[in-house]
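F.,

This is the one I mentioned.
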């Protein structure tokens, strides 16, 4: 989660596929496992027609016990209850769509049909997960994860084939606006629909094309004015 006010905006929740995260809810009365039922509804943000079939709309019944089985299914389970405070574990599927998601809570009494709903104030971000064995992007080697995911700087080599020199290159993946810009490139420039954003190969190809697309609002401007002979 980014810190509240760090960039002049509310804190944003950022999580990864296939990895459980915790949510703490404060109810308007003590939660009763024997009487209360809750479902979590996940919807891709700004998707005009989300559907279960395309994976852009997901409904999950809150389980009573903290055992979430299938890694390729979304899950939610009660971790503990203390009076009106309910802490739950939420696990996105390891093949879920990588994008911004909205979350709604639907609650009702088991003995009645009447229910209430609550919406998370702002969407959360769901990313690929190289730490998860069930994610296509899994990297077993910690050194590779550190180099390819966590390091925000590296060295690139410049010059001609016989006069190479190293230069520092900053990835800046944790910097302000980078995550939103990446999602914008995927959606608007790369034109990857929400239903295909769970496929890392398609997403990588789209980003590769988008950053080198000067005629379509791409991210990089090439400079080929030098003598490269």
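My design for it:
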């Amino acid at each position: 989660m980014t810190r509240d006010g760090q960039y002049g905006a509310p804190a944003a929740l950022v999580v990864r596929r296939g990895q459980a995260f915790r949510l703490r809810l404060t109810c308007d009365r003590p939660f009763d496992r024997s009487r209360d039922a809750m479902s979590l509804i996940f919807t891709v943000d700004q998707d005009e027609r989300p559907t279960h079939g395309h994976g852009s709309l997901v409904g999950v019944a809150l389980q009573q016990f903290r055992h979430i089985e299938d890694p390729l299914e979304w899950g939610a389970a009660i971790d503990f209850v203390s009076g009106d405070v309910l802490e739950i574990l939420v696990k996105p599927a390891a093949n879920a769509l990588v994008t911004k998601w909205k979350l709604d809570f639907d609650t009702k009494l088991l003995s009645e049909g009447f229910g209430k709903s609550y919406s998370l104030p702002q969407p959360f971000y769901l990313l690929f997960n190289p730490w998860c064995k069930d994610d296509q992007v899994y990297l077993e080697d910690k050194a590779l994860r550190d180099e390819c995911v966590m390091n925000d700087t590296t060295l690139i080599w410049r010059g001609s084939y016989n006069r190479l020199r190293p230069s520092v290159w900053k990835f800046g993946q944790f910097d302000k606006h980078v995550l939103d810009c990446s999602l914008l490139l995927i959606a608007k420039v790369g034109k990857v629909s929400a239903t295909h954003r769970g496929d890392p190969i398609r997403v990588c190809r789209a980003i590769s094309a988008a950053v080198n697309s000067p005629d379509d609002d791409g991210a990089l401007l090439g400079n080929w004015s030098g003598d490269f002979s």
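DSSP finds three helices and eleven strands in the chain.

Talk soon.
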